């Protein structure tokens, strides 16, 4: 067997594929048209009302240019609104619409539940250890990312 099957990068990519597939399947079965990135964006907007797009990208560790398309799709679905920032006329602030708030509230329990399916091959102790190690690896390598995770207000 090729050594690639035991390499971290290959296994992380495969688990990402599984994660997206499980998320998509559960959302579709529940009648929702939402991607993992759209859910992350809605969640971050909810936690950070009237956040600007660059800050939002950092909050979910996503490329700002690519996130623009995600926000466009969310706006077309009527889930978010954009307005000129009162602090910086060049920036746009993003807010959840009532429809976006309702969808996020409905989806949150489902997203929590589907996490178990993503790691269904692990028992509870293994899941806790795996998640702790994933967090450690992601945190340690954050600055190596093309789209690092940033807290609000961080540069």
Automatic annotation (TrEMBL):
One of its GO terms (biological process) is response to stress. SMART domains: HTH_MARR. GO terms for molecular function: DNA-binding transcription factor activity. It comes from the Bacteria. Residues 1-139 form the HTH marR-type domain. InterPro entries: HTH_MarR-typ (IPR000835), MarR/SlyA-like (IPR039422), WH-like_DNA-bd_sf (IPR036388), WH_DNA-bd_sf (IPR036390). Pfam families: MarR_2. This is Transcriptional regulator, MarR family. It comes from Lutimaribacter pacificus.
